[in-house]
Predict the structure.
Amino acid sequence: MKLALVVPGGVDRSGEFRVIPALLALIERLARTHEVHVFALRQEAAAARWELAGATVHNIGDGWTRLRAIAAIRTEHRRAPFDLVHAIFSGSCSLVAVAAAKLLRLPSLVHVAGGELVALHAIDYGGRRKWKGRLREAVVLRGADVITAASAPIIDSLRALGREARRVPLGVDLRAWPPLAPRERSARPARLIHVASLNRVKDQPTLLRALAALAESGLEFQMEIVGMDTLQGEMQRLAGQLGLERCVRFLGFKTQCELRPIMESADLLVMSSLHEAGPLVVLEAAAAGVPTVGTAVGHIAEWAPAAALAVPVGNAPALADAIHRMLDDEELRLRLAATAQCRTIREDADHTARAFEALYRRLLAACE
């Protein structure tokens, strides 16, 4: 098959920075047996083309991006026809994919992988905040031949909008994250880790307030916060105001190779997001034998209570209590870690590629 994948970015030519690891894992696996062309809307500001993970990346760049992306797909289709068009993320990606597919009379798939279906007005986040976004999603979701999403909560959101979808998690590459058996904690202070860009949707204020409550209770811990800072030091200042300078470290962005040993040394991953379709880091932690406590979003919501502990969004006291509970009950922590790891291994990057390939074949057979 010749496949057109439409993505917002995450396919930097370095293969390490500004990438989405699960997306690269999927591309690499599809490219083993198919001709894959990735149309990245804004990976770089200027239009460019490069090879990555066995695929050809067509970077569209700034300026009339959506129209030029459709034109780029059409040009490549004329060179040698595509079999289908697949958008990873809805929003502009899916609008481009569905429009190009309709124009070329090809089947299309849309994978909802972000905040396309939510409207978080307080932080100006989500694809359904304004009427234009709601109209775009309605058109896209009705125009796509197949809709998929990474987790059960997103499937439920789509069903509430009258659209049926298939669950296809974006799995972890187990070559980059070889499974490591869950380990018992030592007597040292608890090692916590949080992996996410510092931004509004990840809600680090709730995380830091939960940590402040833990410190006040006398719990000894060290929290490593890994992720790019998009808030110009705001979270570091809040940590200082809460008296967390000695037990919280902000490490900034880390590549996958740099993140792995930090994750392996952790006792617990803590997430505080207002919304997630995944997140992938929960799967990476599980592969490394580390369980998760977090807000009830994405995989955390669908895994709780058997493979994670989930608390209400924005509830710092509940998050603090859940962390304390997990650290006080070693049998629970190890049981959840083992269950989470089994699920991650079962639905790894190979599983993701096979699931999408099965949908491709089914869709093409239906179009014959």
User: Anything to note?
Assistant: The chain has two domains: 2-171+348-367, 190-346. The chain has a mean pLDDT of 95. The two ends are 14 Å apart (CA to CA).
